[in-house]
């Protein structure tokens, strides 16, 4: 009997784990989905914007600890907001200096942003050193929540989950319920026509890119609760993130959510029954296989060609 | 074919021509330098009446720079100290430092340069097994001498390498014995990053647990390098309820792993965990609060309480800043130049064959880790130490073994 | 004869370009550099195979593969497996528990040679496998992707993911592949010590001739009808399809060819460097090879070689002299080249170098002729034309 309740507890926790992997993946992919999906720009430096957010959090945590230790339990909210704006501002700059000149050459943005990611990684290394650093976490985000004796739900997982829901909802509202979103969607579907009806597509592009990078920054801040921060931390996620977006069908936010959910659950379940390495290989292969059978991804917007 | 290019570059300012010229100048200077390197060729090693040249070959850039910086610093410190105390056989040591850039062919290339162009008398370097494997054939062919500082999987013994870190059995067996006895552990969960060192270490651990300790391995698995999602793993640990989790997770994964263990409620009051991959260096990223009460097995900890170590830590911090930390490999790197000095002085020559012949039996009583001695098989006799991790990220040594004989090819463990 | 001259050498201009390159790698380098540096250049030149392949499939075909490391790696592994078997004869491995198998297998408790390794006892099989296995792999990927009309960007990302998977697999299957350390300590080729200085020189020349051979094959393909179709496809895929051509097959062919080139490079790499490891298979090396082609000029087979040499030299030089700076430089170079010089060195040569050299009498005679005739398909970077932008909008 005890065995059975144990088993139930594990099942609950494993289910939660799947959800939490899903949220992490979604949070990473959101920014990319906006940039790649809506603008068709392949931002290989996406991972580095994530790292910008993580380092911002680290710096703010260190400063807080140093100057206003009393604020330590609350600094994290401030860090998330700061991460968003710093990464966003950086994205705005990058769009202005680089991306805007390459819109008609999508494959070239891929290459140029990869160069950017190299530069950014080395910049992190020069500024923060090559070692991994950890932000001092407030006490309330650490440890686990126990609804029953046998169940431990990680608090940081809950936190990331909440943040993901918040971000996703905000983006949904912005894209589908705001004037700006209307412009973005119009620009994505037909740039020339949008310009003709008086939309400033340049401005729309810049804001979209900045928003995507800002969301990456938020993801980076969230990551400090579960992982480490190092110069190359962001680049580890780039393949997973791209696959998530592509698998979901570019240009479809719902698709990105569905694909993050599928990939995360598959990964989490396989990890439980197989070894970690094998689970990863199988998940990625399955995604590629499905992509070969259905190249447009899970969801795709029908556009008359 | 090449003439089909059009347009895009045509309207560039003339200044670009200058740019092109600069590129060709750069190329010319690269070649120039390469040509000069040849002129320095002399027969034998680069030893003059007043100097002897050695090489240092680590990654100063790339992903491994994180780990190798400590070794670079420690080796430099030792060399500076030797020079300050009069050098070796009356000669000052000059260092040629090369960057392996975390790239194995670059390591091979630079090793070849050090041995064939610079004719160095010894090389202190490499960190990962992969880089060592890449340079090994070169050291054997050119008859060079490498001092390798990292604890590693064993299964190797080269005439041209002195291994100053622990091989796997030295690190694993004593610590497993201790934890089995101390905690009455019977069941073990083995896990590591997916590459040769964790896999070989776990293989040895499994044999030891099953054949010697009479325990049981309830899980063994590997995660890709850089993996940051360990949620399923924490659940599996909870399901299997092992007495001991035996971990060899490395790099960025380390931080994620311990943070997630803590978040899942797997803390030292409920679960015993012993790791062979966390030194003071890793601790900086992980944070003591995430590992409080877990155990780490190494041969050296910065907190070791002996006069040699006090002096070493003081000097290291004086040179590299008071916030710098010293991990196991850093200390092993520090031993290299001193062991080489002792061997050269015993041999009375810098000749590699003579130094190699003189090496077995070399003792170092001034080592920060205490007494070490070079074995016939080119590894060091050393002690295994187990430390309990404190909330502030320091290591409190709770157990110290006898001096352990190195055994890179352990019978019954392969 | 005349036809072959035009097709293979590209007329007078092409022939001179090729001669200059041949003179550089066959005469200048061997004379000017010692064996150690020459071996290094040889290693760089193995990357040039990949870059030449990329010019074909990316520059002309518009297919940007971010997974060329897969093919470089597979080719290299095929060769390394053969060499490792030769190095693991029962005599030199007699301290192992199972003599006669590669050392890393012994450490992983394998007691006999796996099936996968058996055929690599034969040198003939190995030579075929070096080219055939990667080409087959490319064929499978190509059929799956192009027959279903997967777009450029998707293709890039999928190839990148495949490179990631392959790396994890190689590292994970360490009993079969040597894991993260790779296959090391390769000694002889059919009894001939490849670590010898004289062997290194011979291998350098073999490598150089193979590279020139690949360039000739590339030229032949590009000057044939196929080459023109490729460019047409890159610029207006739909129109070529509507004209009744099987677009996918052409893409698959050029992708396989690029894969085969990369594989030859990989095999030569294993021979010259003496080991093969998963660090040449993954995402980072794959994308670095794209840099080589981009810097050299994505439209120029010869440029790809110069680009490879220049970037590799730069990497070695800067990482020796200014280790902190080289990633900035590398990244910066990439950004600048992609943004401002999409045609790379070759483009600069066409727009400025040729004019400059024409000031000198001999230079004028050799290089001064303006590009002979405007071919049917001007090789603009595909989307530079406003028409394209209009058309991609539905």
Automatic annotation (TrEMBL), chain A:
<feature type="transmembrane region" description="Helical">
    <location>
        <begin position="157"/>
        <end position="176"/>
    </location>
</feature>
<keyword id="KW-0813">Transport</keyword>
<protein>
    <submittedName>
        <fullName>Amino acid/amide ABC transporter membrane protein 1, HAAT family</fullName>
    </submittedName>
</protein>
<keyword id="KW-1003">Cell membrane</keyword>
<dbReference type="InterPro" id="IPR017779">
    <property type="entry name" value="ABC_UrtB_bac"/>
</dbReference>
<dbReference type="InterPro" id="IPR001851">
    <property type="entry name" value="ABC_transp_permease"/>
</dbReference>
<dbReference type="Pfam" id="PF02653">
    <property type="entry name" value="BPD_transp_2"/>
</dbReference>
<feature type="transmembrane region" description="Helical">
    <location>
        <begin position="12"/>
        <end position="37"/>
    </location>
</feature>
<dbReference type="GO" id="GO:0022857">
    <property type="term" value="F:transmembrane transporter activity"/>
</dbReference>
<keyword id="KW-0029">Amino-acid transport</keyword>
<comment type="similarity">
    <text>Belongs to the binding-protein-dependent transport system permease family. LivHM subfamily.</text>
</comment>
<keyword id="KW-0812">Transmembrane</keyword>
<keyword id="KW-1133">Transmembrane helix</keyword>
<feature type="transmembrane region" description="Helical">
    <location>
        <begin position="236"/>
        <end position="260"/>
    </location>
</feature>
<dbReference type="InterPro" id="IPR052157">
    <property type="entry name" value="BCAA_transport_permease"/>
</dbReference>
TrEMBL record, chain B:
<feature type="signal peptide">
    <location>
        <begin position="1"/>
        <end position="37"/>
    </location>
</feature>
<dbReference type="InterPro" id="IPR017777">
    <property type="entry name" value="ABC_urea-bd_UrtA"/>
</dbReference>
<dbReference type="InterPro" id="IPR028082">
    <property type="entry name" value="Peripla_BP_I"/>
</dbReference>
<dbReference type="Pfam" id="PF13433">
    <property type="entry name" value="Peripla_BP_5"/>
</dbReference>
<protein>
    <submittedName>
        <fullName>Amino acid/amide ABC transporter substrate-binding protein, HAAT family</fullName>
    </submittedName>
</protein>
<keyword id="KW-0732">Signal</keyword>
TrEMBL record, chain C:
<dbReference type="GO" id="GO:0005886">
    <property type="term" value="C:plasma membrane"/>
</dbReference>
<feature type="transmembrane region" description="Helical">
    <location>
        <begin position="45"/>
        <end position="74"/>
    </location>
</feature>
<dbReference type="InterPro" id="IPR043428">
    <property type="entry name" value="LivM-like"/>
</dbReference>
<feature type="transmembrane region" description="Helical">
    <location>
        <begin position="15"/>
        <end position="33"/>
    </location>
</feature>
<feature type="transmembrane region" description="Helical">
    <location>
        <begin position="325"/>
        <end position="349"/>
    </location>
</feature>
<feature type="transmembrane region" description="Helical">
    <location>
        <begin position="243"/>
        <end position="269"/>
    </location>
</feature>
<feature type="transmembrane region" description="Helical">
    <location>
        <begin position="153"/>
        <end position="172"/>
    </location>
</feature>
<dbReference type="GO" id="GO:0015658">
    <property type="term" value="F:branched-chain amino acid transmembrane transporter activity"/>
</dbReference>
<keyword id="KW-1133">Transmembrane helix</keyword>
<dbReference type="Pfam" id="PF02653">
    <property type="entry name" value="BPD_transp_2"/>
</dbReference>
<dbReference type="InterPro" id="IPR001851">
    <property type="entry name" value="ABC_transp_permease"/>
</dbReference>
<dbReference type="InterPro" id="IPR017778">
    <property type="entry name" value="ABC_transptr_urea_perm_UrtC"/>
</dbReference>
<feature type="transmembrane region" description="Helical">
    <location>
        <begin position="123"/>
        <end position="146"/>
    </location>
</feature>
<feature type="transmembrane region" description="Helical">
    <location>
        <begin position="301"/>
        <end position="319"/>
    </location>
</feature>
<protein>
    <submittedName>
        <fullName>Amino acid/amide ABC transporter membrane protein 2, HAAT family</fullName>
    </submittedName>
</protein>
């Amino acid at each position: 009997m005890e065995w059975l309740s144990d088993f139930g507890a594990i099942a609950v926790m494993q289910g939660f784990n799947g959800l939490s992997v899903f949220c992490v993946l979604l949070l990473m992919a959101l920014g990319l989905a906006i940039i790649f999906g809506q603008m068709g720009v392949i931002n290989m430096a996406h991972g580095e914007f994530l790292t910008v957010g993580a380092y911002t959090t680290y710096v703010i945590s260190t400063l807080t600890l140093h100057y206003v230790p009393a604020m330590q339990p609350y600094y994290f909210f401030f860090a998330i907001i700061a991460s968003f704006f710093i990464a966003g501002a950086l994205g705005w700059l990058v769009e202005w200096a680089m991306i805007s000149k390459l819109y008609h050459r999508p494959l070239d943005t891929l290459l140029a942003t990869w160069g950017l990611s190299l530069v950014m990684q080395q910049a992190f290394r020069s500024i923060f050193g090559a070692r991994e650093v950890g932000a001092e976490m407030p006490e309330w985000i650490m440890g686990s929540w126990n609804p029953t004796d046998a169940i431990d739900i990680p608090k940081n997982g809950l936190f990331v989950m909440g943040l993901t829901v918040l971000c996703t909802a905000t983006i949904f509202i912005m894209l589908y319920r705001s004037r700006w979103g209307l412009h973005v969607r119009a620009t994505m579907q037909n740039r020339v026509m949008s310009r003709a009806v008086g939309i400033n597509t340049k401005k729309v592009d810049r804001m979209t890119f900045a928003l995507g990078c800002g969301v990456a920054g938020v993801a980076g801040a969230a990551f400090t609760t579960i992982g480490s921060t190092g110069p190359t931390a962001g680049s580890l996620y780039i393949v997973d993130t791209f696959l998530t977006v592509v698998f979901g069908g570019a240009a479809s936010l719902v698709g990105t959510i569905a694909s993050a959910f599928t990939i995360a659950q598959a990964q989490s379940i396989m990890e439980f029954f197989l070894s970690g390495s094998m689970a990863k290989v199988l998940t990625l292969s399955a995604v590629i296989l499905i992509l070969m059978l259905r190249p447009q991804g899970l969801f795709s917007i029908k556009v008359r060609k | 074919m090449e003439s089909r290019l059009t347009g895009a570059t045509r309207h560039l300012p003339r200044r670009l021509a200058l740019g092109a010229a600069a590129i060709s100048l750069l190329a010319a200077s690269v070649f120039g330098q390469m040509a000069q390197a040849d002129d320095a060729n002399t027969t034998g090693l680069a030893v003059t009446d007043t100097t002897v040249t050695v090489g240092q070959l680590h990654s100063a850039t790339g992903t491994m720079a994180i780990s190798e910086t400590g070794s670079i610093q420690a080796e430099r410190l030792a060399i500076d100290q030797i020079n300050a105390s009069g050098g070796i056989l009356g000669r000052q040591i000059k260092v040629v430092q090369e960057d392996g850039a975390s790239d194995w062919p670059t390591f091979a290339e630079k090793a070849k340069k050090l041995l064939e162009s610079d004719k160095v008398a010894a090389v202190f370097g490499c960190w990962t097994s992969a880089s060592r494997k890449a340079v090994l054939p070169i050291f054997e062919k050119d008859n060079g001498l490498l001092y390798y500082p990292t604890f590693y999987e064993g299964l190797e013994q080269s005439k041209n390498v002195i291994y100053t870190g622990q091989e796997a059995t030295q690190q694993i067996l004593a610590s497993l014995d201790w934890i089995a006895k101390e905690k009455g552990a019977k069941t073990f969960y083995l896990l590591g990053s997916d590459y040769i060192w964790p896999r070989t270490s776990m293989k040895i651990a499994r044999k030891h647990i099953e054949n010697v300790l009479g325990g049981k391995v309830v899980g063994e698995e590997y995660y890709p390098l850089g993996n940051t999602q360990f949620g399923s793993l924490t659940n599996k640990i909870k399901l299997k309820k092992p007495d001991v989790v035996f971990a060899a997770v490395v790099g960025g994964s380390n931080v994620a792993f311990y943070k997630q263990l803590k978040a899942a409620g797997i803390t030292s009051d409920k679960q015993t965990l012993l790791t062979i991959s966390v030194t003071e260096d890793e601790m900086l990223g992980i944070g003591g609060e995430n590992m409080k009460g877990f155990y780490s097995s190494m041969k050296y900890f910065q907190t070791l309480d002996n006069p040699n170590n006090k002096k070493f830590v003081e000097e290291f911090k004086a040179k590299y800043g008071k916030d710098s930390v010293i991990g196991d490999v850093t200390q092993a790197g520090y031993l290299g130049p001193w062991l080489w000095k002792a061997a050269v002085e015993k041999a009375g020559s810098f000749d590699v064959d003579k130094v190699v012949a003189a090496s077995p039996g070399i003792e170092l009583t001034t080592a920060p880790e205490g007494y070490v001695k070079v074995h016939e098989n080119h590894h060091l006799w050393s002690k295994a130490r187990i430390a309990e991790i404190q909330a502030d990220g320091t290591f409190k040594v709770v157990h110290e073994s006898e001096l352990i004989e190195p055994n890179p090819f352990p019978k019954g463990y392969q | 004869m005349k036809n072959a001259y035009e097709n293979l050498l590209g007329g007078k201009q092409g022939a001179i370009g090729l001669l200059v390159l041949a003179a550089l790698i066959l005469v200048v380098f061997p004379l000017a550099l010692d064996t150690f540096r020459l071996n290094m250049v040889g290693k760089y030149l193995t990357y040039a195979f990949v870059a030449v392949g990329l010019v074909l499939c990316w520059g002309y075909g518009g297919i940007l593969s971010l997974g060329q490391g897969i093919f470089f790696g597979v080719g290299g592994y095929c060769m390394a497996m053969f060499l490792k078997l030769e190095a693991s004869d029962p005599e030199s491995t007699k301290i192992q528990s199972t003599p006669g198998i590669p050392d890393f297998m012994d450490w992983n408790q394998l007691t006999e040679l796996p099936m996968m390794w058996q055929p690599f006892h034969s040198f003939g099989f190995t030579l075929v496998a070096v080219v055939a296995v990667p080409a087959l792999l490319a064929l499978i990927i190509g059929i799956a992707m192009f027959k279903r009309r997967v777009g450029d960007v998707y293709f890039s990302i999928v190839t990148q993911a495949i490179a990631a998977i392959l790396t994890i697999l190689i590292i994970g299957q360490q009993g079969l592949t040597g894991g993260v350390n790779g296959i090391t300590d390769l000694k002889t080729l059919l009894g001939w010590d490849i670590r010898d200085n004289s062997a290194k020189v011979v291998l350098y020349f073999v490598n150089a001739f193979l590279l020139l051979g690949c360039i000739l094959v590339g030229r032949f393909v590009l000057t044939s009808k196929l080459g023109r179709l490729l460019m047409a496809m890159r610029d207006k895929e739909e129109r070529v399809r509507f004209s009744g051509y099987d677009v996918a097959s052409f893409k698959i062919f050029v992708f396989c060819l690029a894969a085969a080139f990369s594989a030859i490079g990989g095999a030569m790499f294993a021979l010259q460097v003496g080991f093969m490891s998963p660090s040449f298979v993954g995402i980072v090396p794959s994308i670095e090879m794209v840099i080589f082609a981009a810097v050299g000029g994505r439209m120029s087979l010869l440029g790809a070689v110069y680009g490879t040499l220049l970037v590799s030299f730069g990497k070695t030089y800067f990482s020796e002299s200014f280790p902190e700076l080289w990633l900035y430089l590398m990244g910066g170079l990439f950004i600048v080249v992609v943004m401002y010089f999409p045609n790379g060195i070759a483009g600069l040569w066409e727009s400025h170098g040729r004019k400059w050299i024409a000031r000198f009498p001999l230079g004028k005679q050799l290089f001064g002729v303006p590009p002979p005739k405007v071919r049917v398909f001007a090789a603009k970077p595909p989307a530079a034309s406003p028409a394209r932008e209009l058309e991609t909008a539905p």
